[in-house]
Amino acid sequence: MLFFLDSAKLDEIKKAYELFRIDGITTNPRHIQASGQPFYKVIEDIAKWASDTGFKDYKDFPISVEVNPHLNDAKEMVAMAKDIASISKNFVIKLPCIEAGIQSAHELEENGIRTNLTLVFSISQALYAAHAKSLFVSPFVGWKESSGEDTREYIEGIINAYKAINANTKVLVAALRSGSQIAHAFKNGADAVTCGLSVYQEAMLHPFTYKGLGIFTNAWDNTNTNR
To answer: Angle, nearest 10°, between helix axes 99-110 and 123-131?
Structure first.
């Protein structure tokens, strides 16, 4: 069970690691934009933080970095992926689940560069990631549920299909927006989830926890605690 942070902001990454000991990071072009910094500066800063924290490679702490979304040619995707991968051994290359992305995933994996097939919205798409032997597949939940779809069967279907074919690709459930979505992902057998820091913080909250703390605090205050 792995918890990844969906962010490219270094302050959020540091805070999430201090609070929850996150197991990895997922970024995308929107997260990079939200950081307010140039693309390569952002990923270089994250790579430096990971190295300074003691993480040697993607096995210790995977950091997913996405190629330019304008690219739809496999040669161009592979070239950019190799450039990104050369920056840090922690980097896992995110590729869109389109024909050029699948083709690129095969080539990159064959050459030792790990990949994460993203923007996956169906079981059939997820099977292409497994066939390419990608490290991760990222099925999106939040967007599908926003359109009224029930995603539990979809996530369970990917996991069951992977079990049936003995796939080594890990199911990284993405675009989660609530504690219940996190719970459903792991209940269905997901290897990892990724979401924003605020989602993790809100998922930890429960009114009965604070009610209990109030009761216990009152009991403490009315107990002799001197040694």
So the answer is: 30
